[in-house]
Design a protein that fits this description.
single chain, mainly alpha, rod-shaped
Length: 223
């Protein structure tokens, strides 16, 4: 049984929110991966490791891609629907790019820390400072993406409102035409009734004339 447009859009939004949270958690794990005993974020549980969250995000991105494919197969009924399809594709691409970027930065950081650890130059204080700054930058970026999504939804609502106003005007014109036709029918019926009355009156007059003429002919014949 094929899923409806509303169901797919709702599932996509929920999955996008989950992916966004997972990416934030993964970014924080990567930022704190070089800590040996410093601060740890209370938002991240110790049981969630980098590998497990990466696998979860991969699975969620695959599922979101499937939802996008199903939405693309549905024929758009307006500009708002086309905009929604395009927006969900952009969000999926942005999440993939962000995930690849986090993974790449994580690998680079691990390699750099391994080199520094091997040379004895790893500084715990500098590592903590950089990781906190990276974490704040990531959170700021995700907040900016959320604001962008809200703005897109507002634009879709405005376009939908304009479409509804146009449809309402069209229905109002059709209703006015029906009202004009309804008003015209009583006039037509009244005209037909007048014609019928005139026909009956002419028939009576003609009958009287014929009767008078017949009576005169009879009187003339008997005299």
């Amino acid at each position: 049984m094929s899923e409806s447009w509303d169901d797919l859009r709702k599932k996509s939004r929920n999955l996008e929110n989950e992916i966004d949270l997972k990416l934030v958690s993964l970014s924080k794990i990567c930022s704190g991966s070089g800590h040996s005993g410093g601060e740890s974020s209370p938002l991240i549980s110790s049981e969630f490791t980098y590998d497990t969250i990466s696998v979860e995000i991969n699975d969620m991105l695959a599922k979101l891609s499937d939802y996008n494919d199903k939405m693309t197969q549905i024929k758009p009924t307006g500009n708002a629907m086309m905009h929604t399809q395009s927006r969900h594709r952009d969000i999926l691409n942005a999440y993939r790019t962000e995930f690849n970027k986090i993974t790449q930065n994580h690998n680079i950081k691990l390699e750099r820390e391994e080199l520094l650890r091997g040379s004895g130059l790893l500084s715990s204080n500098s590592s903590n400072s950089l990781s906190r700054r990276d974490m704040y930058l990531k959170e700021s970026q995700h907040l900016s993406n959320s604001h962008s999504m809200v703005n897109d939804q507002i634009n879709i609502a405005i376009e939908t409102q304009k479409s509804l106003k146009t449809q309402r005007k069209a229905f109002k014109k059709i209703q006015n035409r029906f009202n004009n036709l309804a008003n015209a029918f009583p006039r037509i019926n009244s005209l037909v009734q007048r014609i019928n009355i005139k026909k009956r009156r002419d028939s009576l007059i003609l009958g009287l004339v014929i009767a008078v003429c017949t009576l005169l002919m009879l009187l003339y014949a008997f005299h």
